[in-house]
Structure formats: C-alpha cells, structure tokens
Please model this.
Amino acid sequence: MNKKILGTLIGILGAWLFLVPYTAGAQERTLLTPGLEISNGAAGLAGQGKIFLVPNLGFELDVGWTPQVCGNCTLSQTTVTANLFYWINPVRYASLYLAAGPGFGYFNLSRPVSASSLLPVFDVGVGVVFWPSRRLGIELENRWFFPDGGLSGNTGGSLTTDRWFIGLSVPI
Model:
C-alpha cells in the first residue's frame, strides 16, 4: 500500500473517531460520577465531573481520597487533578476514554513518623463507561498518579499510586 493511500485512510479514521457522538446513552454535555476507589490495595472515595468542550474532547475534575496501610506505615492521600480527556464510542452501549493532567496531592503519613506534604501530581488514566440506560452509566477506570517529591523517609517514587475506580455516571 503506498504512503498516500495509507495517509488518507489514517486521516479518515482520525476524523471518524473525532466526530463519533460524544456519549453512547445520553445527549448532555456534563457527566458526574461518584464512586469508590481501590488504591494500592486500600478502599477510598472518589468522584469525577466531565464537561465536553467539543464532541470527543473535554475537561475533567478528578478528586480522590484513600487511607492506606503501606507495609509498616499508615499513609492517607487526597488528590485533585484537572485533566483533558478524549472520548469515543466504539459500540452503542459503551464509551472509552483516556485522561491526563496535572493537579495536587496531599499526603499525610501518620506511622511510623508523622509527616505531611502538599505535592504537585500528574495523572494518566484509561476508562470505560457501560450504558445500561440513557440516564445512568457504570464507569470502570484505572489511573496512575505520579507525585513530584516525597515525604520525610519516603521518596517521591514510593508515593506513586495505581488507582482502580468504579462509579455511577449520571448525565446532567
């Protein structure tokens, strides 16, 4: 296949992915998703708000809190990130998205020593929303948080977290 034909096909595919309707089950441009998270083995609370700026691209605010027991320590973390997301609907009852952006994380170590810090973080996530009805979706997501810095006795890399999230998406 020559490069011109390949370039044309990639352009058509890209345009199609960008122009596919922005939600599978709802026509509103805002989604709220409260839910539960599992971060490094500990359960916590999280929530997201998504606003579509154009059909497949939007802004997201992600908030999460998790109390963790990490080996011989007790660490709670609260993260707030502002992300851009890209959203597609490959099938009628499911939507896929990628999200990434900067934010802040408050890390509070209470055992074996007491230390806390507000650190810049960057997160990257991938998710799917299943739409059993037009007014309710079930969202499953995996997101990684990378803080810039550390706490006393902990390096920045030890604060990196992997979060699984499940929530109910409600278009408003």
User: Anything to note?
Assistant: DSSP finds one helix and eight strands in the chain. Strands lie at 30-39, 42-54, 57-70, 73-91, 94-111, 115-133, 136-147, 161-171. The helical segments are 3-19. Residues 21-26 have pLDDT under 50 and may be disordered.
